[in-house]
Amino acid sequence: MGLLENKTALVTGAGSGIGREIALHFAAEGAKVLVSDINDLDGQKTVSMVRERKGVAEYFHANSGSPQECEALVNEAMNKFGGLHIAVNNAGVGGPSVPVGEYPIDGWDRVIQINLSGVFYGMRYQIPALLKSGGGSIVNIASILGQVAFPNSCAYVAAKHGVIGLTQNAAVEYATQNIRINAIEPGFIKTPLLEKNMTPEAFAMLEKKHPMGRLGESSEVAELCTWLSSSKASFVTGSFYPIDGGYLAQ
Ligand SMILES: NC(=O)c1ccc[n+]([C@@H]2O[C@H](COP(=O)([O-])OP(=O)(O)OC[C@H]3O[C@@H](n4cnc5c(N)ncnc54)[C@H](O)[C@@H]3O)[C@@H](O)[C@H]2O)c1
After folding, report:
1. CA–CA–CA angle 219, 47, 195 (5° rounding)
2. Residue 202 CB neighbours (<10 A)
3. Which domain holds residue 18?
4. I need a labelling partner for 234 at 20 to 30 A (CA). Which of 5, 74, 152, 180 fits?
């Protein structure tokens, strides 16, 4: 019997990287998974990967930066699967790489819209659905940059710090209503988000910043997310977990 048997889950940004691995792990543990993304081909590829492994998944296009689309995504989960027990707000973008005094206003707005407001929009509609379904778990994918600075990344760092506060606030509000809400803070993880923006030299420099001397794998993050989303984590709420090869311990 899988850890998430008889559960239904939605994962945003599940067409790539960390979100895809979370969807695969959830399905392998028995959950029915609604895979969501703005990149339909990639999202549908995740669904095919789940089905090849005999799991259950469906795809739904939703932009996490749009409240209407976040609501539609939750409605789809309720209609298709008859309930919602687990949500992972994972969709995110990197943004421009320049200091605060030069940071483009439209770049700031976009990163905050997707990486911070998107998590609020997600929870705004997920929580009523979880309540209707008898409770469950939300995991928000933040970052180690939800705790510390990273030069030339002000919007990303501000958004991820905001996600931690938002997670704690929501967790406290719903702690007695059988909804657990936590955040994960990955260190640098080998995903397209990183790979498409990095030279090999920058990559090597990043590896050195992690005491383990390497970057993380999406599957390592998915393991933690699966545990947090399962009844094994029944007393865990309002917490945020670095998974970073020791980065924040320095
Ligand atoms: N890779 C890392 O080093 C790292 C580290 C810490 C935190 N994170 C966080 O993990 C999450 C996933 O990142 P990843 O590295 O897997 O990135 P990725 O680029 O591989 O995947 C992100 C996915 O989100 C989708 N997406 C982008 N904007 C969207 C939107 N508005 N609505 C819905 N989907 C959207 C993309 O199409 C893509 O499929 C992000 O929140 C990111 O900030 C990543």
Report:
1. 45
2. 11
3. 8-191+218-238
4. 74
pLDDT (mean) for 15-23: 98
Ligand 1: residues within 6 Å at CB?
12-13, 15-19, 37-39, 42, 63-65, 90-93, 114, 141, 143, 186, 188-189, 191-194
17, 115, 78, 50 alpha-carbon torsion, rounded to 10°: 0
Do the Cβ atoms of 90 and 38 come closer than 8 Å? no
> Whole-model pTM above 0.85?
yes
Beta pairing class for 86-89 and 8-11? parallel
Active-site annotation holds for 121:
no
Which range is least confidently modeled, 45-59, 71-85, 196-210, 233-247?
A: 196-210
CA of 156, closest atom in ligand 1: 43
| Cβ(12)–Cβ(90) below 8 Å | yes
Instruction: Say if 89 falls within a structural domain.
Output: yes
Residue 45 lies inside a defined structural domain of this protein: yes
